[in-house]
Every structure is written in C-alpha cells, then in structure tokens.
Amino acid sequence: LSLAIRYCDRCHLVKPDRCHHCSVCDKCILKMDHHCPWVNNCVGFSNYKFFLLFLAYSLLYCLFIAATDLQYFIKFWTNGLPDTQAKFHIMFLFFAAAMFSVSLSSLFGYHCWLVSKNKSTLEVFRAPIFRHRTDKNGFSLGFSKNLRQVFGDEKKYWLLPVFSSLGDGCSFPTCLVNQDPEQASTPGGLNSTSKNENHLFPAKPLRDSQSHLLTDTPSWSETSAKAEKDKVGMSNPALTMENET
C-alpha cells in the first residue's frame, strides 16, 4: 500500500498487506483480526467467516436455552417447583445462558459492524497506511461488496461452515484512486499539455541503444554546438562569399 516492503523480523518473511505477526501463535497471520482465547487460535483471513458463524450459532443456542428455561425460572421464584436440587440447576442455567447471550450479542454486533466496513480489529485502532496518506476506510467497497469479501458471492453458502471468502489473503481491493498529489490540486480547466509535462520518466524501460545514446551527452553537445556554428556561418553573407572563393 505504501510501496514499502513489510518484513517480519521473527518469521523472516515478507508480510503482505493487512498481515500481522501474532505473539501468541508466533507466526504471521493473513488479514489478522485478533487472537481469540475462546478457540485458542488467531482469527484472520482463513477462519474469519467461521468465527462469525461460531458467534452466531452460539448466540442462537444461548437465546434458545434462556427462552425455554424462562418459564421454569419464573416458577422457581413463585415456589412452583418441587423442593429438589434440580431447581438450583435451573436457576444457574438461566443465568449462564442470559449472561452469555448478552456478551455474545455485543461481540457479534461489533464484528458485524466490522464486516460492513471491511475492517479488522487491529485496523480500527491503527488505520492502514496507503500510498499518500492513512485512511481508516480505504478497504471499504460498500456494504454489499464488503459482505461478499467475507462470505463470498454464493449466498447459499453464507450460513454454512464452508470457506467461501474472496481473494487470496495477500492483496485486497481498495476504494482509493492512486493520484498524483500535485495533480489533485490542479483545476479541471487545464489543457492536456500541462498534464503531459508531469511525466518526467518514460512509461516503458529504454532499450540498450537508447540508454547508450542518452548517456553520451558530451558528444551530443559538441555536435550540436558545431552544427549551430556552421548554421550561423552560412547565414552570414561575407562568410558565404569566402567559402565560395
């Protein structure tokens, strides 16, 4: 992005864009989001969709348990249950399901927001650096395209634990246009000649013959100076007469 090679001193490898080194796993993770202690693994490009589905499935499961246990939890406080040890299990189960539902809903909602903006948790705290500036929304392509970056183009695979993310994890499309900062400030009314003057270097590499001719600048200067002198001499009538005689 910034035209600088990112190198990992621990892995001794070149790090692609959005790749970071995890100190817990001791390796570089493509499009690293965070290290999750729940699954004892890093969440990145290869398993980010699986992590989102894990949160969704777990949230639905906890909500189902809390909803089905609610009627027995109410009977516990109204003395509608028999006086056995099972009623304490019902109370503990409801509290555990309710607490996990609250924590999972907040975490799942936060990651849904990250997917909609095409960001990672690390990029929220530190914006990625592009060619001319830092932009926290540089990878955002729109809500629909951001979802497809994680879940893929086939909607029938979105809710299934099947890898369907787009890309290879090394390069990602951006919404930024690579512009020259000097050209960005020029008004649109200028002609095309002013734009061509900014191209100081050729678009294609020079051939050996061309590079050899360009490096031979002294001979060119001497030849051009001699040609100018001859041209001046021919334009003078007196010198012309002397040359004829």
From TrEMBL:
E.C. number: 2.3.1.225
Reactions catalysed: L-cysteinyl-[protein] + hexadecanoyl-CoA = S-hexadecanoyl-L-cysteinyl-[protein] + CoA
EC primary class: transferase
Bias kind Polar residues: ranges: 183-195, 211-224
Region (Disordered): 183-245
UniProt-recorded Gene Ontology molecular function terms: protein-cysteine S-palmitoyltransferase activity
Keyword Repeat (UniProt): no
Transmembrane residue ranges: 50-68, 88-110
Palmitoyltransferase DHHC domain: residues covered: 6-124
Cellular compartment(s): Membrane
Entry GO terms, CC: membrane
Membrane-topology annotation of the record: Multi-pass membrane protein
Keyword Translocase: no
InterPro entries: Palmitoyltrfase_DHHC, PFA4/ZDH16/20/ERF2-like
Record's keyword terms, sorted: Acyltransferase, Membrane, Transferase, Transmembrane, Transmembrane helix
Domain note: The DHHC domain is required for palmitoyltransferase activity.
Family: Belongs to the DHHC palmitoyltransferase family.
Name recorded for this polypeptide: Palmitoyltransferase
Annotated source species: Eurystomus gularis
Primary gene name: Zdhhc2
